[in-house]
């Protein structure tokens, strides 16, 4: 049963006590887009990673300002399929934080995340073996 108030450590411990250690591997795929009029290159550094529920993982996205002026952007994200989103937990993320890049500047931005161990035992997640984490960068109006 999904309990959003229980910590991931408590869930992993409970699953270990009852013998439901995660065995299922989930492929997390990464997508990156920029909104119309945003002169940035924005790509995931890796296309995918494989994780088991309860394991943490680190991924990176790279953004580059390809214009001749400083630009501030902010990103939003979504998780697909939507029903898996409640199990996707970001520990550290660049989303919703303004990023200012100088002309030609390039930065790597980390996303540190885990899949909630409850994913393993939720019958609604049967057949969900791939999750897509997608970010879109938008230009902040000055």
Automatic annotation (TrEMBL):
Q: Which GO terms describe its molecular function?
A: copper ion binding
Q: Which Pfam families match?
A: CtaG_Cox11
Report the protein name in the record.
Answer: Cytochrome c oxidase assembly protein CtaG
The compartments listed are: Mitochondrion inner membrane
Q: Which GO terms describe its cellular component?
A: mitochondrial inner membrane
Q: What Gene3D superfamilies has UniProt attached to this entry?
A: Ctag/Cox11 (2.60.370.10)
- Domain of life here? Eukaryota
Q: What does this protein do?
A: Exerts its effect at some terminal stage of cytochrome c oxidase synthesis, probably by being involved in the insertion of the copper B into subunit I.
Q: Does the keyword Transmembrane apply?
A: yes
Protein's membrane topology: Single-pass membrane protein
Ion transport as a keyword of this entry, yes or no, is no
Record key words, sorted:
Membrane, Transmembrane, Transmembrane helix
């Amino acid at each position: 049963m999904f309990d959003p108030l229980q910590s991931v450590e408590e869930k992993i411990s409970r699953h270990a006590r009852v013998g439901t250690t995660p065995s299922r591997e989930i492929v997390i795929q990464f997508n990156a887009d920029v909104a119309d009029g945003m002169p940035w290159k924005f790509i995931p550094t890796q296309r995918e990673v494989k994780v088991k529920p309860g394991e943490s993982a680190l991924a990176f996205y790279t953004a580059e300002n390809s214009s001749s002026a400083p630009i501030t952007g902010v990103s939003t994200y979504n998780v697909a399929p939507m029903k898996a989103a409640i199990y996707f937990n970001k520990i550290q993320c660049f989303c919703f934080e303004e990023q200012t890049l100088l002309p030609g500047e390039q930065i790597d931005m980390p996303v540190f995340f885990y899949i909630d161990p409850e994913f393993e035992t939720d019958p609604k997640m049967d057949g969900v073996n791939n999750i897509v984490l997608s970010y879109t960068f938008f230009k902040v109006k000055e």
